[in-house]
């Protein structure tokens, strides 16, 4: 039953804010508009709080009120451990950066749910029903609920290092971001993606037979050749690529050392330091700044490393100083490289 049907007064967001900050905990409280309490220190809110959009981000609120009923709830960076089962959010629930969050109510249904950077969250709730789900960098998340659905929207799971598979119930999404999910090596056979798939630094080595999905690498559109067969990329292909963003991905996939060797890099400088020989190398790129890198050897293992540096650097010593965090190369005088 609505607030007006009950004869209750509906406050504007400004009126509701003034009442809450005055310490008035009278409930129920109904508001209209965007009630922004973000950044205001809070210890509690009254139960039975209803309205359009409520922003509690960065308030330090330790618990959410019971029977909270809003269209949108923004609750970033709070020390909450759970979301009460009585919570109702219609459109968007954002809980990013809640380090202690462990539990969400079973049967949670909301249009968009964002849980990125919640390192204590080990499980998603049974019966979860969303259109858009973001679980990026939820490091403790290892398993999926047996019953849930992401309905034709998007699933963003960047850098979920402990996930080893996608759930069988995930059958149709518009966009799927698995960048950094090294443990995910295959897609479910029944999964259909009608938008795009981001595979950067994931464990995927190919697509299921018969699937033709537009691919991305951290948002950059690429093809299967770049995504899954970096050993086949040549320096000539890289230099012929007109798109600078795609070219950078190709160079990353190819590896700086092989790219410099195949491209016939120009040597700008060479010297020796406590760690051994250093070489500063450059390759000019079309419609982009030059690729400049310093080649150094690890004094412990003898292994060579190629590290990119700003194109304005002109000496190997200045490159090493920049990598070590020195603005003035003259101040960088290591007795021995670690």
TrEMBL record:
Fetch the Pfam families from UniProt: DUF6745 (PF20530)
Q: Which InterPro entries match?
A: DUF6745, LRR_dom_sf
Q: Where is the DUF6745 domain?
A: 195-336
- Superkingdom: Bacteria
Name this protein carries in UniProt: DUF6745 domain-containing protein
State the organism named in the record: Deinococcus maricopensis (strain DSM 21211 / LMG 22137 / NRRL B-23946 / LB-34)
Q: What is the lineage of its organism?
A: Bacteria, Thermotogati, Deinococcota, Deinococci, Deinococcales
